[in-house]
Backbone:
């Protein structure tokens, strides 16, 4: 019997059972979020301090809901990282549907923000309210990243709830495997700088790929 699951309701266990997803224990699998990161300029560091100040000013009054997270934290980070400029393009609220190989399970959902540069390389931005643990977005983001996964080229995800940030890498091997960063926090000194540097570093991977094809 065909089962349909909304992406926001799926669990890591269901992704493992139906799509073969596995988390790798190889510490070298996902180094892109911490190795050889570009240096930030003084202007970029000052801009990040403004983001932090804006965030704390607003969150001290009431928890930021999803749209507030996008406006106050996510949008500036994407801008500073260059994702609003060529060769990148932005698709928002994109519908996706993935089916297990035996076609017994279909996962449907919408991506909050989808940054696309190459046909097989996708950066998923999954924004959550500050009231929720950022890791609550992981199964949903992985479900989206599994969409049409037919290449061994990696896909990268970025989970943010305004307070915390997690990077995710997904790649097809014998089965789809993923790794993730620990949760970086806007509360800890210099970690917001690492978030921006990692976003810029991952973005540079797209520029350097020899067979770049921009989606329209």
Residues:
């Amino acid at each position: 019997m065909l089962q349909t699951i909304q992406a926001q309701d799926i669990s890591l266990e269901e992704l493992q059972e139906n799509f073969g997803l596995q988390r790798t224990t190889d510490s070298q699998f996902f180094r892109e979020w911490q190795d050889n990161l570009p240096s930030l300029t003084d202007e970029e560091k000052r801009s990040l301090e403004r983001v932090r100040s804006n965030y704390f000013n607003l969150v001290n009054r009431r928890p930021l809901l999803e749209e507030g997270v996008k406006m106050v934290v996510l949008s500036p980070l994407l801008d500073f990282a260059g994702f609003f400029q060529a060769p990148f393009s932005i698709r928002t609220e994109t519908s996706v549907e993935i089916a297990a190989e035996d076609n017994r399970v279909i996962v449907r959902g919408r991506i909050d923000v989808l940054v696309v540069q190459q046909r097989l390389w996708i950066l998923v931005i999954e924004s959550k309210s500050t009231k929720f643990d950022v890791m609550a977005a992981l199964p949903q983001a992985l479900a989206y990243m599994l969409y049409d996964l037919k290449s061994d080229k990696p896909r990268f995800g970025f989970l943010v709830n305004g307070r915390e940030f997690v990077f995710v890498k997904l790649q097809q091997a014998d089965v789809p495997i993923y790794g993730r960063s620990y949760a970086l926090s806007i509360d800890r000194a210099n970690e917001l700088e690492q978030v921006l540097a990692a976003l810029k570093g991952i973005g540079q991977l797209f520029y350097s790929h020899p067979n770049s094809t921009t989606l329209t």
